[in-house]
Amino acid sequence: MSDPSPPTSDHDITPVTIEEEMKRSYLDYAMSVIVARALPDVRDGLKPVHRRILYAMKEAGYDWNRPYRKSARVVGDVMGQYHPHGDSAIYDTMVRMAQYFSMRLQLIDGQGNFGSMDGDPPAAMRYTEARLTRAASDSLLDDIDEDTVDFQDNYDESTKEPVVLPARFPNLLVNGAGGIAVGMATNIPPHNLGEVIDGCLAYIDQPDISIDGLMQHIPGPDFPTGGIILGRSGIRDAYHTGRGSLRVRAKTEVEEIRKDRMAIVVTEVPYQVNKARMLERIADLVRAKTIEGIADLRDESDRQGLRVVIELRRDAEADVVLNQLFRHSQLQGSFGCNILALNGGRPEVLDLRAIIAAFIDFRQEVVTRRTAFRLGKARDRAHLLVGLAIAVANIDPVIALIRAAPDPVAAREGLMGRRWPALDVAPLIALIDEPGRVVEEDGTYSLSEAQARAILELRLQRLTGLEREKIAAELEEIAGEIKDYLEILSSRDRLMSILREELSDMKTRFATPRRTEISDHGFDQEDEDLIQREDMVVTVSHGGYIKRVPLSTYRAQRRGGKGRSGMATRDEDFVSQVFVCNTHTPVLFFSSRGMVYKLKVYRLPVGTPQARGKALINLLPLAEGEVISTFMPMPEDETTWDQMYVVFATSDGSVRRNKLSDFVRVMANGKIAMKLEGGDSELVAVRPCAQDDDILLATAGGRCIRFSVSDLRVFAGRTSTGVRGIKLGKGDKVISMTILRSGEAESTEERDAYRRYAAARRRGENGDSEASSEGGIELSQARLGELAESEQFILSVADDGYGKRTSAYEYRLTGRGGRGIGNMDLTRHSGRESGVIAAFPVAPSDQIMLVTDGGKLIRSPVADIRIAGRTTRGVMLFRIDESERIVSVAHLAEEETDDDEAAPEGGAPEDGVTESAGPEDAGEDGPEVS
């Protein structure tokens, strides 16, 4: 059996690599999707499917003033003539153009179920009906039959369809667009029609207007569902670059729905948010306890508008719950602008000015083509009227010629072959300006075939006087129209005037008030807005663990109660610092490396009273060997920090004073607080101070210096190494800094007098004012009482276990930068070297904890430590082995045990902890005088 296929020759076959074929085929497919499906045209703002639906409805006569027609009939017309794709795609597009919550200016007037904001699907197309809205008919499709736009063949070349619609307003901006093509996507927000037209008018008046100038008329998108746009930065980015992100928030109100019961009422939601899904999400968040304080949730939306009621619990704060909803639910979201459209048939990212410029250029072309079309129609009509006017003016010869003609053809040829006097019609003939159709020099005019036919078809009633006047009047009217059209085509000012009139008419007829509010405050919501204000007990352990516990957890007890546990600690750890503050209180953490970190209290780990907490190294980006030397809770109002000062002290003797406002902005990875010189230098302490305070620096070598804060200027920078606070001896270093109140004594003599009095009183000698007068001034008993109330005591502890309390009056005020004075006798004792490990102010009710490098701890009340002179060694605080050294001394919080457990009487102490021993128990005092 022979092969029925025709034979092929080698020259009919062209080898193509599969890579080239795939590349070419995919590129053809991509361009087809981009141009013919996914992207709107900048001129009318429509994709092909939208354009075909509107044009098919216009052609079928489904105008706004006609009865509704079945949606299935519209879909069938579109699919059968223009859009050979699935009916569901056409119907879905048609439905969206009829939804008030999707389109800022509806283009289709639907009757029936066209879906809802809850995501409910529309009814089937056989149940719904539709017709064009007046805006679509009068604005997008008007003048389409006057050669205003180009037409192209449909898919089977059986009819024509418009390439673009002659839109009278920038529909791309007014209704926006969204689509995904191949390798690109578009997402254009809708705008307010009146504002967009105002921008177009401003561009017509000032073609070189800037984008910022246009934004005076078009402040931002206007979503059909309303809502609030937070800030203008995203709008500026979108209008200037074509890309930007808008933060959109629902519009809410707080109402009292019942007595003492408040509710958050949502009246507008962000654009394209599914309301039912949003409510489900909120309910899930409430069940998961991500959002707390919500008692009930219900949708009360009706035909009057949207209304979602979020009922709150009695103890909930509406602002806190609302901020949590904004953070976690669709009550707040973002709209990513990507203004990509076809401009000249090519995809292009457009800014605001480019869109308006492209539309104005398009409208100029439309008006020009429409005017030229109407001019042609007017000339055609005028041409016929000229023939009738000539026939009427020469009626007798015309009738005679027609009567003499044997047939109509001969009559027509006879009319065309004779020259007729033009008479008064000559000016109109010149105005028509037809090629070859002019009045000769002798004033005669040759009729055309069309004019001859019109004369032959002239009814006898047109020969009456009234009808002749009508012909003349129509000729005059047509002449005026032709003149007007010619003026439009020759004058740009006149053309722009028509554009202005048509745009203004669109605004008057179809513009509505703005629905979306634009907030100038921007998106300034912080995490703390989601946190309810509550007092917290912050606990820090010696080993570097921190936590917060609600103050309400610690219930009030009567005096003498057992208390309760504040933190579960290991044997070698203990609570070193406790302070009560609000969840919104900022805390500054200064480290030994000179860094500062900042956390709000709500960011600290929350725990139970028995919990250990979380290690600081897991909260802050601390380097190896870096420890936090200072915890500083600060005022919540950071505007007050400018009137506050802090003093820094380093181990090499440098000091620096800064305004606290220098540390308002601290990044997550910290900020350099003080520059340290040398590898061994460390930041010892940071303390808040006032202008009239004094600074006391103590060194490991037993020296100290006291000078006024006013001697230390305020530094402007943070990275400075500061100035010298104390001149150190070889191998010495600063181990502490204390801020002392100044002004306890008004003079050196008064300070010395009180010191003598206090020493005598402690020795049990004369405790009256006479003791103060030895070798100096005499103080009254009242003044001595005042000085006693303001007296401060400095606790100094050596690493060999000795320590003492000394009155701050013992430390005289000197100039900054000197070698200082003696603070503690460090002469050899028991044959070993020693050094000062701590020096800080204490109160008689305080307690201290001493820790050795061998892991032993002792807790002692400060009241048991002897008050001694500045240069004494003190008493034994902690009896330790020869090989041990005290490595840390810390203040302690009040002894805390669980209120449900009784402390065992006479029980053995914990491992590694020695019970408190006072000076009498130690049995060994140091020398009173150095």
From TrEMBL:
Biological role stated in the UniProt entry: A type II topoisomerase that negatively supercoils closed circular double-stranded (ds) DNA in an ATP-dependent manner to modulate DNA topology and maintain chromosomes in an underwound state. Negative supercoiling favors strand separation, and DNA replication, transcription, recombination and repair, all of which involve strand separation. Also able to catalyze the interconversion of other topological isomers of dsDNA rings, including catenanes and knotted rings. Type II topoisomerases break and join 2 DNA strands simultaneously in an ATP-dependent manner.
Family: Belongs to the type II topoisomerase GyrA/ParC subunit family.
GO biological process: DNA topological change; DNA-templated DNA replication
Single annotated GO MF: DNA negative supercoiling activity
GO cellular component, one term: cytoplasm
Region (Disordered): 890-930
Alphabetized InterPro entries for the sequence: GyrA, GyrA/parC_rep, Gyrase/topoIV_suA_C, Topo_IIA-like_dom_sf, Topo_IIA_A/C_ab, Topo_IIA_A_a_sf, Topo_IIA_dom_A, Type_II_DNA_Topoisomerases
Keywords, in A-Z order: ATP-binding, Cytoplasm, DNA-binding, Isomerase, Nucleotide-binding, Topoisomerase
Protein name: DNA gyrase subunit A
Intracellular or extracellular location(s): Cytoplasm
Domain of life: Bacteria
Catalytic activities: ATP-dependent breakage, passage and rejoining of double-stranded DNA
Motif window: GyrA-box: 557-563
Gene: gyrA
Assembly with partners or alone: Heterotetramer, composed of two GyrA and two GyrB chains. In the heterotetramer, GyrA contains the active site tyrosine that forms a transient covalent intermediate with DNA, while GyrB binds cofactors and catalyzes ATP hydrolysis.
Record domain Topo IIA-type catalytic: where: 39-536
Catalytic center residues: 127
